[in-house]
Write a structure and sequence with these properties.
By secondary structure, the chain is mostly beta strands. The chain contains 1 helix and 30 strands. It has a 5-stranded antiparallel β-sheet with strand order 1-26-25-24-23, with no helix packed on it. Strands 6-5-4-3-30 form a 5-stranded antiparallel β-sheet, with no helix packed on it.
Length: 488
Amino acid sequence: MTSTHHTRVRRRRLGVAASAAGLLATLLAAGPASATPDPGDAQRSPGARIAAGETPGVPGQDEIVHSRNIKHLANIPSTNPDGIETDIAFQGAYAYAGSYDGFTIYDIRNPKTPKTVTQVLCPGGQNDISVAGDLLFLSTDSSRSDDSCNSVSQPATEKSSWEGIKIFDISDKKNPKYIKSVETACGSHTHTLVPDGRDIYVYVASYSPNDAFPDCKPPHDGISVVKVPKKAPTKAAVVGFPVLFPDGGNPGAPTNPGVSKTTGCHDITVLPSKNLAAGACMGDGILFDISRPEQPRVIDRVQDNTNFAFWHSATFNERANKVVFTDELGGGVGATCNEATGPNRGADGIYDITGRGDARKLVFRSYFKIPRHQADTENCVAHNGSLIPVGGGRDIMVQAWYQGGLSVWDFTDSARPKEIAFFERGPVDPSALTLGGSWSAYYYNGHIYSNDIAKGLDVLRLDDWRTDSAKRVRLDRLNVQTQPDYRW
């Protein structure tokens, strides 16, 4: 379905009212210390009332604005007005979009007219999603009564509760079949596929243990590794729990006020062609060697106790000499893209990788944040994105910013990143802080696909001389956290 929103191309002014300073301060104080920095099981209901009317310089409610080099091609609305759309994976002519309700398979052979193939109801936030061949993987990080798709919420204090990885057979796109579950310690907030010949390894990221949780007790200083035999996926099982933080990681507050204590990882991105991985682990960013997938080994570790509250995700550049880490300040539910928060918090941190082998180091170079202030009713912070494979030694990526929309930005010069394109909607609600916006924005085979929490799947075309070369790159699959070698 084509978007029915009125569209007009214009540049947004940078000014924004600061009428919600009190509410913002409360959110920022609570965000980094929260047990679940992502929206978790939160509903998209309005929060505290802020101010009636529109904020100067911000689009009207649901109004679409974008730069001249982006065209909005299509939108398939979410079928659940109160649901939460999440991550996306791609394979062949299909996009697989997760949600807190389950997942949807879209036919994207014609990006201008994407079609829904099927929807699978299998509640269990946040349903982080990946695909490999005929297998689809879903992460469950909300305590459930059992491992079935008919489960209901149940307290994590009960031993019978279940969280972990679910595996589906998607050989029949119209009729996926649930074939296996694997319970993992503290559930599976996100996961990353690591291909290894006859097997697929799944790195499971989870965090926030509690002495009251039978299956999630501290310390929780590593990741679960699940081995999935390709020819016998129903034999999938946990084969290890490598410790990444033998010293316990970042202690967080009160030692480092406003910073999350490291009790696991939020997201891991692997670069199999280089046997490298980058982990965003709450209070720490790490670079590690995955040449032995069951025994990943940390090479370097960094912290930013000044501007980073919660290390959320990581992206390598094509030459594997840089990593972009994101900071999910406020847990994704706060209005942190306003003037009061400033340009360095809730931003990306760009790190160069220097040295060789075990002497490699992560060296901070700069921050990047979208240059348009958002309203105090818009949740906005750095979130999921992917490289645009432009080649030629240039580094460009597209990234979601919740209600900040999506941004295309160039970090070829690590010290001077700059935005080159954008797309966004006005506030879901101009008078109340309400969850919405782009959860994931990824580039796949010539188009940008964005899964909007409230609005559903968006398809966009980017026409810019700096990115035109990427249109020649064709992939047969894309799980963004398993970065391909584009081989220019």
